Request: fold
Amino acid sequence: MQLEQDNTAHDKLKEAAIFLAEYAATMMAVGAQTSRIQLNTVRMARSAGYHINLLIFPKTLSITLLDVEHNHSYTYIKKTPPMGINFKANMKLSALSWRAFDHKLPTGELWRMFRMIVKEKRENPWVVLLLASIANACFCRLFDGNLTSMIIVWVATFIGFFIRQQLTRRGMNHLAVFVVCAFVSTMIGVTDFLYFHGGTEDISLGTSMLYLVPGVPLINGVMDIVDGHALDGIARLTNACLLIICIALGLSATVIIFDIDPTTFTKVARPDVVQAAIADGLFAAVAGVGFAIISNPPRKALAVCALLACVGHGIRYFLMHDAGLMFDQVTASTIAGFAVGLLAVPFAMRIHCPAECFAFPSLLPMVPGMFAYKAIRDLINIVRLPDEYTMEYVARFFSNASLTVLVMFGMVAGCIIPIFIFHRQSFSVTRR
Reply:
């Protein structure tokens, strides 16, 4: 009789461990930050009356479950499945952990609900394609591109993103996908230099491939590091850096083929700072929604994302261009990110959606894409130009690369400070 009871207890422990490992690995795959994965998984284990030891690594995780008396234990190691970033799944999986905790749901019922969430279809790919193209065209406008540049960037993004969708569907390596898409998009972007001469040719080329910049992995990586999960954060940042290098390879091929000199940058002066800040905010709102849709957020989060992107980018523009302030981009980005995070918490509580589902996409229009582009350009010139120019471009590369990193860390740190201050509210918004 005792042996039969032990076997039954062990089987239940095994089933729960496998489910929790699958749950945590899926949350990692859909783009949840490490803290949320850990809190949700521990919550579900405790709801079933188990003690849990959870180790989260970049590509795998290990779960050890123990019963209350510590008489039985079960360890399960799970590899993270290949899934795209999916904020809607992130929200629903977080809500599932609270349902398990509040209602003490059995493992079989949790499996059923989990599979329903995972099987939900993403947004229509044609809608994603159209909105992402419009978003990058608006991104071009944020960097002072004119109408000609915006049209060229829209075409470059539409074709490049369509190729990305098709190659990803066919299982092509994601690094190779980024190289191919960056090359195709910049080949279209360079037509402004060759044929149209619209006046902001540099912006056409520089923003034609910015839809590929891995903003969410960069933001998640910074957040993990700030939150004490350095290993996962460094892994995410490393993966994002590899994708940026792939973008650079595609851009380099275009620049070398056509012998383009992308060393000048258009800067448009706008005398009315308030009006310009409002206009930039509106374009940022469209860009925020377009970039957000790529990550499949809940529909109810899109309007909030647009509002936060508008407010954040408008604040940053005003702080940087008002004659009485003239803040540097790092400081202005940090303050704007803080404003986004401060607004995100009450909105998250109101619509019962994790703040990052709309706060992170709303930061994407503030990603320092042109600094990253300039750093890539400097690397190309280090290789292409004569030796007497090498040190000049080495210095420029480190300057632009440092600014890119500092702006990213500043705006993300500013955004997550309110989330950490209101930690309990931020991590319980999906509880109903």
